[in-house]
Amino acid sequence: EPGAAGPSPAAIQVSRIMRPDDANIAGNVHGGTILKMIEEAGAIISTRHCNSQAGEPCVAALARVERTDFLSPMCIGEVANVSAEITYTSRHSVEVQVNVMSENILTGAKKVTNKATLWYVPLSLKNVNKV
Fold it and tell me: What positions does the domain HotDog ACOT-type occupy (predicted)?
């Protein structure tokens, strides 16, 4: 059975520098860019968790965005550090908490810009119709 409950892997972090094409004319990074990074980090940690269990190979699919908070803007030239951690597992779903922190690489200043809670479900890679 994909996604059987068990020990959860450690938190992961995905980072990248924000570029002009990630932002509006004022230099503020688009919300969609941040949301995409949040979902990617959640998918990575959830898929790793699901495949660390006994059972058929699977990929984690986003089933629900429970909450997303935009706390502070991020700007071009800052590094987005997206960290994801599994906070709940069951046989059929995984809850992931994601935090986004911006880092000004010139000054070293860091601030939390976003927080999100996401739910993923395992999809079988052998039988694409099986959740």
Answer: 8-126
